[in-house]
Amino acid sequence: MPRPVVRTLWWFALPALALPYGVYVVAKGRHALVFVLILGGLTLLAQAIVVVRFVMLRRRLRQSSGSLCLRCGYDLRGLDDPGLCPECGREFQLQRDSATWRKHVRFEH
Asked: In this structure, is residue 54 part of a structural domain?
Protein backbone atom coordinates (compact mmCIF):
# COMPACT_ATOMS: atom_id res chain seq x y z
CA MET A 1 0.00 0.00 0.00
CA PRO A 2 1.40 3.47 -0.83
CA ARG A 3 3.01 5.16 2.15
CA PRO A 4 0.90 8.38 2.04
CA VAL A 5 -2.19 6.18 2.45
CA VAL A 6 -0.62 4.35 5.40
CA ARG A 7 0.27 7.67 7.06
CA THR A 8 -3.33 8.78 6.66
CA LEU A 9 -4.75 5.57 8.10
CA TRP A 10 -2.53 5.92 11.19
CA TRP A 11 -4.92 8.61 12.47
CA PHE A 12 -7.57 5.93 12.96
CA ALA A 13 -5.30 4.21 15.47
CA LEU A 14 -4.76 7.23 17.72
CA PRO A 15 -8.03 7.06 19.69
CA ALA A 16 -7.60 3.31 20.10
CA LEU A 17 -4.31 3.90 21.90
CA ALA A 18 -6.19 5.71 24.69
CA LEU A 19 -8.83 2.99 25.03
CA PRO A 20 -7.10 0.81 27.70
CA TYR A 21 -6.70 3.83 29.97
CA GLY A 22 -10.33 4.76 29.30
CA VAL A 23 -11.54 1.36 30.43
CA TYR A 24 -9.50 1.76 33.61
CA VAL A 25 -10.90 5.22 34.35
CA VAL A 26 -14.51 4.22 33.68
CA ALA A 27 -14.09 1.09 35.81
CA LYS A 28 -12.84 3.22 38.69
CA GLY A 29 -15.75 5.64 38.23
CA ARG A 30 -13.58 8.75 38.44
CA HIS A 31 -14.17 11.50 35.94
CA ALA A 32 -15.91 9.11 33.57
CA LEU A 33 -17.94 11.81 31.84
CA VAL A 34 -14.90 14.00 31.29
CA PHE A 35 -12.99 11.07 29.84
CA VAL A 36 -15.84 10.08 27.53
CA LEU A 37 -16.11 13.65 26.25
CA ILE A 38 -12.36 13.91 25.68
CA LEU A 39 -12.08 10.52 23.98
CA GLY A 40 -15.16 11.26 21.86
CA GLY A 41 -13.66 14.59 20.82
CA LEU A 42 -10.34 12.98 19.95
CA THR A 43 -12.12 10.31 17.94
CA LEU A 44 -14.09 12.89 15.95
CA LEU A 45 -10.95 14.95 15.39
CA ALA A 46 -8.99 11.91 14.18
CA GLN A 47 -11.79 10.92 11.81
CA ALA A 48 -12.03 14.46 10.46
CA ILE A 49 -8.26 14.47 9.84
CA VAL A 50 -8.52 11.16 7.96
CA VAL A 51 -11.32 12.48 5.75
CA VAL A 52 -9.50 15.74 4.99
CA ARG A 53 -6.22 13.95 4.22
CA PHE A 54 -7.94 11.49 1.87
CA VAL A 55 -9.75 14.32 0.08
CA MET A 56 -6.44 16.17 -0.35
CA LEU A 57 -4.67 13.00 -1.54
CA ARG A 58 -7.43 12.22 -4.06
CA ARG A 59 -7.31 15.81 -5.35
CA ARG A 60 -3.52 15.61 -5.81
CA LEU A 61 -3.85 12.23 -7.55
CA ARG A 62 -6.57 13.55 -9.85
CA GLN A 63 -4.49 16.62 -10.76
CA SER A 64 -1.37 14.57 -11.44
CA SER A 65 -3.17 11.67 -13.18
CA GLY A 66 -1.77 9.26 -10.60
CA SER A 67 1.88 10.19 -11.10
CA LEU A 68 2.82 10.64 -7.44
CA CYS A 69 5.71 8.87 -5.72
CA LEU A 70 4.50 5.87 -3.74
CA ARG A 71 6.87 6.60 -0.88
CA CYS A 72 6.70 10.37 -0.34
CA GLY A 73 3.86 11.61 -2.56
CA TYR A 74 6.07 13.87 -4.70
CA ASP A 75 4.55 14.87 -8.06
CA LEU A 76 6.59 13.05 -10.73
CA ARG A 77 5.09 14.72 -13.81
CA GLY A 78 7.69 16.04 -16.22
CA LEU A 79 10.45 13.68 -15.05
CA ASP A 80 12.10 11.03 -17.23
CA ASP A 81 10.42 7.65 -16.98
CA PRO A 82 11.79 5.45 -15.42
CA GLY A 83 13.83 7.44 -12.96
CA LEU A 84 14.52 8.36 -9.35
CA CYS A 85 12.24 10.50 -7.20
CA PRO A 86 14.11 13.74 -6.43
CA GLU A 87 12.51 13.92 -2.99
CA CYS A 88 13.20 10.46 -1.53
CA GLY A 89 15.35 8.65 -4.13
CA ARG A 90 12.90 5.81 -4.82
CA GLU A 91 12.99 4.29 -8.31
CA PHE A 92 9.74 4.81 -10.19
CA GLN A 93 7.97 3.81 -13.36
CA LEU A 94 4.98 6.05 -14.01
CA GLN A 95 2.69 3.37 -15.49
CA ARG A 96 3.36 0.86 -12.72
CA ASP A 97 3.05 3.46 -9.94
CA SER A 98 -0.11 4.91 -11.44
CA ALA A 99 -1.63 1.41 -11.53
CA THR A 100 -0.70 0.93 -7.88
CA TRP A 101 -2.41 4.20 -6.93
CA ARG A 102 -5.52 3.15 -8.88
CA LYS A 103 -5.53 -0.17 -7.05
CA HIS A 104 -5.50 1.41 -3.57
CA VAL A 105 -7.15 4.83 -3.97
CA ARG A 106 -10.16 5.58 -6.13
CA PHE A 107 -9.45 9.05 -7.48
CA GLU A 108 -10.94 9.20 -10.98
CA HIS A 109 -14.45 10.45 -11.64
From this structure: yes
**CA-to-CA separations, 29 to 40, 46, 57, in angstroms, rounded:** 17, 26, 42
CA distance 34 to 21: 13
Helix (H, G, I), strand (E, B) or coil at 32: helix
- Asked, for residue 13, whether it belongs to a domain, the answer is yes
How many angstroms separate the CA atoms of 52 and 90, rounded? Answer: 26
Residue 65 covered by a domain? yes
Q: In sequence order, what are the residues at sequence separation of 6 or more whose Cβ sits closer than 8 angstroms to the Cβ of residue 85?
A: 69, 71, 72, 74, 76, 91, 92
What pLDDT sits at residue 48? 85
| Residue 109 within a domain | no
pTM value is 0.62
In this prediction, residue 73 has a pLDDT band, given cuts at 50, 70 and 90, of confident
Query: What's the pLDDT at 26?
Result: 66
